[in-house]
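S1.2 Input.
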Amino acid sequence: MRSIGDLVEVGGADRRRRLSGLAALALAALVPWVLWGLLSAPVNNDCDGACAADGDREAALAAWQHFWSDLAERGETALHPAAADPSLRAAGDTAFMRYRNLWGSIDRDAREAFQNAALSSDPDAKVRLLHPWTMAADKHVRFRARLEIARIHLRRRDLAAAEAMAREALAVADLVPAIVADAYFVLGAVAFEARDLDRAEEALARAVAADPGFWDARQMHLAVLAEQLGQPRQGTAPCLNRTREMIEHLGALPALAEDRTQYRDLADRFALASPVDNPALALLAGLGYLWSGDLGRARDALTRAEGARGPLPGPCADQIRDQARAYRATLE
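S1.3 Output.
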């Protein structure tokens, strides 16, 4: 199974080819983690006052209902990220690859240092080349040098060093949000690798909020949310919010990749996980098949979602089953 550190290293100029290949690898890697989390967690249909961080149920329910109303009115296009910048290349590992012209002018020596570091196969040599630029006058150079060193540490599984350098990158002021998203992504990857799902969820949510066109952040956030939905003693509000966010990613990832076959890829992965009786994952599978045009499998998955009983808190599972029932009714 491919590691989180490997995922952040992938690059390439052709967005369709890279995203299609990365989708298969990332989604294949997602399933074992999801199954492990769901099968090892006790069923919890009745979350009482002892639940941690249940949050505001009324606010979560209002957001849930608004989400489905918008989806009913506008269809899956309601989930497509707004193209705030026509230069977006969602395949880019960093904001400087995802968006054109973020660098502006860059010192020739700094450019050569980044190029030589990229060409080197020695992690220690990479760090030596980049370290002087972590204090550069140019804020973009300063941030990028710290970010690249954090990514090197992440690939080496030195999670403490990766986190420390990512936080140093975040300390660089006056950057556009899309750039800052890269540092949050590294923090999320570090936490996910360390199996700290709460911190991973928070950091990756910040990355996606800062740059909705960040494909890698969305796919990793999707994997974290899927695991979170299998954790014991989960509150109703987090359950509703996580399920909604997963569906948002389900609609956004194929749009960013400009490849509708990813709906089916995602649906297949969640259909594989749905036998553990999680209505949220079965609903995800049903919607993925529906939007890919496979109505037969959509009907089957939505039917499974209607009958699934665990492991979510009862009020959240009821809302999910109601939506599955409504969508299945349109296929009769």
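S1.4 Remarks. The longest helix spans residues 15-40.
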